[in-house]
Amino acid sequence: MRALEVLETGPLALIQDLGRPGYAHLGVPPSGALDVPALKLANRLVGNAEDAAGVECLLGGPRLRATTSCTVAVTGPPVAVEVDGRPVGSHAPVWLAAGQVVAIGAPATGLRCYLAVSGGIVVDAELGSRSRDVLSEIGPAPLKKGDVLPLGPSSVSGGADVVLPTTAPAELVVRVDPGPRAHWFEDPAAGLAKTWTVTAESNRVGLRLDGPALTRGPEYAERELPSEGLLTGAVQVPPNGLPVVFLADHPTTGGYPVAAVVRQASLPALAQARPGTLLRFHSSTRVWNR
Amino acid sequence: MRWRAYGEHAALLDCASLAESMAAHAMVSSARPDGITELVPGARSLLVVETPGSGALATVRELLADADLDHPPEGESREITLDVTYDGEDLELVARDAGVSTEDVVRLHTGAVYTVAFTGFAPGFGYLTGLPEPLRQPRLPAPRTRVPPGSVGIAGEFTGVYPRVSPGGWRLIGRTRTVLFDPRADRPALLAPGDRVRFRSAG
């Protein structure tokens, strides 16, 4: 069988593809790779369709043995990749002979690396996706030592593009649009433009931020919001005034006001924001309170 | 009704009542315009997400501008009956607050026909509307850290069933063995918005 055998997992290694959109009305989050461009690139490098399932590894660490010859590529932040102890590059296709071991180091910046393998990982799909959803616990369980990951048939040879990795910046500027409940807050644009810090409570559900709390307008101070639909990128602000930016495993409805919504182009950078990262929200519109 | 922008590819319809949001959801889901990625009813809202470039948001806006929400289409609503053993930990509390016997609580809860208003909190957790007045009661002051799967609870204007183990603050009146959510099933969530639900006492 074409497969990868898991020798080590690192802190958290999850199988991810592009997720399972379309089920929010059943309470099922979209899930999928947090850094979508990184997974797509890794897949292209090994000759896969962009939506094939790979491994999203938090802070690196996995070691995987190929039971068959295959091509792998690691993307995301720059990271050391070794084959049988010999350094090879990230962001480039690497050919493994049967029995060889690929190891991913810990990235110096960023959080999440993506490993794609020719043929893709073909564990059983749930609701049309092989993504692990950490909130709903749908999809394949986090990788553990001894797991054998079946691979699909390898189609074309990879290695078309070799791409320089991007380094996660120390301070992020996140582009946002006003959210549906922006009018609940006192000057939300100015409040969000201040400097926030990503906290260690962040995960695939959302980034939790610390900083100068947003305040609600007097007429909304004690108001309860009936449960309403949420999106990836929604900046929800609970009563303590500290925003939560929802990522792919977010709940599909929620009961706190959404002050702003992150532009899709800014989402991959959020996937790589470590605890301690400084972050500001920037909006190009002046119209915030409606 | 009022539309509010929600990011680049979505809009939220603010509704005056739960009935209005359910009617708007029924209207849009029966028309099924092309290019909708997600359609998420809430307690007083409807979230519409479009496929970028599809123009679906504009279509939905037009559809609802002319809609008679007092007479929404029936749609493809199904009726589901759930067998419940009424032995929940809060059954006596619910009876006391309602000023009735525990048998009356069961009679009231099984006597109504409910509609799935929206889903959220967890996969397959439906908020069912239609709860008889005496059973409209507050949540527990402190949520339980572990509610067993299949627990039937009530809170405010809603009743619902916890699909899996989770924390939860609803008052629990019983339990069902029916599987509410199975991601490998053809129909993963037993209860979808618009479905009708009855509870039957299984003794």
UniProtKB/TrEMBL annotation, chain A:
The keyword Nucleotide-binding applies. Pfam families: CT_A_B. One of its GO terms (molecular function) is hydrolase activity. InterPro entries: CT_A_B, Cyclophilin-like_dom_sf, PxpC. Keywords: ATP-binding, Hydrolase, Nucleotide-binding. Residues 25-290 form the Carboxyltransferase domain. PANTHER family: 5-OXOPROLINASE SUBUNIT C. This is Carboxyltransferase domain-containing protein. The lineage of its organism: Bacteria, Bacillati, Actinomycetota, Actinomycetes, Pseudonocardiales.
TrEMBL record, chain B:
InterPro entries: CT_C_D, Cyclophilin-like_dom_sf, PxpB. Residues 1-191 form the Carboxyltransferase domain. PANTHER family: 5-OXOPROLINASE SUBUNIT B. This is Carboxyltransferase domain-containing protein. Keywords: ATP-binding, Hydrolase, Nucleotide-binding. GO terms for molecular function: ATP binding; hydrolase activity. Pfam families: CT_C_D. SMART domains: AHS1. Transmembrane segments: none annotated.
